[in-house]
Amino acid sequence: MHYQYFSAPSERDAWSPKIAGWQRRSLREEAESGPTPLPPVSQAADGGAVVSSTEDARGLRSKYLNFRAAKKRALAREVASWVQSQAPIHYVEDGVIDHWATLEETLASNGDDCDGLELLTFHALRDLGFGSEEVFRAIIFRPDDGQHHMVTLWFEDADDPWVIDPTGAMTLGMPRMSEFPGWVPLKVFTDRVEFTVRAPDPPSGPDLAAHDDWP
User: Helix crossing, 114-127 with 60-90: angle to 10°?
Assistant: First the structure.
């Protein structure tokens, strides 16, 4: 199934107030203290190259694009592996109220649940050179049991992004979204934009509205 990841949300979208509140606090935090300092790296652009023939594969352009794509994937997998290794140590359940932390709140608290730990991946990839049009936070839903989860999606492929799950509740490693037909992407967003994900045939099952039932 090819999801339409970047549709405008409806005016009555149940997730929009929650996302907007987190966006306001994150932008205010960045304005007050600046982004988390990390060593500068070269800015990465698009993903892999499509080589159409053997002759093309021997060309410098194809070699360069494929080399760059391989390095980006290796870096993303390294980030995924590190965050997933830290999650069991720093996973902290929210209380009665589901609070979406900012990155600084997560670091200062020495941990958080999935929506806080996911920020480690989201910010690390952007700080390490992945473009703001490539990396998004995502709310994922499993109709079978009504579970919601927060992951990072890297859109190297606009139709089938890579999934980086901070806690491993959905998956470990860095698989494609298409490998998980049992999970449905609902929202993709950053600290500045928000989109609703639409499917050609919406899955049947429990209500997909917002719930405070993060794993």
Answer: 150
Statement: residue 98 has pLDDT above 80: yes
Pairing of the two strands 184-189 and 4-7: unpaired
Q: Is residue 5 within 8 Å of 195, Cβ to Cβ?
A: yes
How does DSSP assign 11-27, residue by residue?
TT-TTHHHHHHHHHHHH
> How many Cβ atoms sit within 10 Å of the Cβ of residue 18?
17
pTM higher than 0.90: no
Q: Which CATH entry fits the domain spanning 4-10+60-198: 3.10.620.30, 2.40.170.20, 3.20.20.10, 3.40.50.300?
A: 3.10.620.30
**Positive/negative CA dihedral, 9, 165, 64, 2:** negative
Query: What's the N-to-C CA distance of the chain in angstroms?
Result: 25
